[in-house]
Design brief:
The protein is α+β, with helices and mostly antiparallel strands and 124 residues long. Helix content is 21%, strand content 43%. Strands 1, 2, 3, 4, 5, 6, 7, 8 and 9 form a 9-stranded mixed sheet that branches. A hairpin with an 8-residue loop joins β3 and β4. It is globular, with a radius of gyration of 15 Å. The relative contact order is 0.26.
Length: 124
């Protein structure tokens, strides 16, 4: 048995444009743009979404959006999503990068939010 929840929506932008994009979204949404210490590719936009994290991520790819599902068991959640039709396309640190049917990217990430238990669904 494990739990998971949608935790993060990421605005992926080419690395060269990340600063300008973070400043734009910060001003557009009326929230601060906070660089994430130790994870320089991320700029958090705290307060933009109730119950979720919104962040700008610098990537070496085209502009896009993707979501993160946080879980207390990365392997079990990855297996569950693959059984539903997702395909694993890469790994980064403890995270699994999947492509859902329809082509959208999603990441399965280890539990990190303080309100995880309050919002997570139990599987299995």
């Amino acid at each position: 048995m494990h739990r998971s929840r949608l935790s993060t929506i990421l605005i992926d932008v080419p690395a060269a444009d990340a600063g300008r994009a973070a400043a734009f979204w910060s001003a557009a949404l009326g929230v601060p743009a906070d660089p994430v210490p130790g994870e320089e590719q991320f700029t958090s936009l705290p307060g933009a979404l109730a119950g979720l994290t919104l962040a700008v991520q610098a990537v070496d790819a085209e502009a896009r959006y993707h979501v993160d599902l946080e879980t207390d068991d990365v392997e079990a959640e990855t297996a569950r999503l693959i059984a539903l039709g997702a395909v694993e396309v890469d790994r980064w640190l403890e995270c699994r990068i999947l492509r859902a049917p329809g082509g959208h990217l999603l990441c399965v990430i280890p539990r990190h939010s303080a309100d995880f238990a309050e919002h997570a669904t139990t599987w299995g």
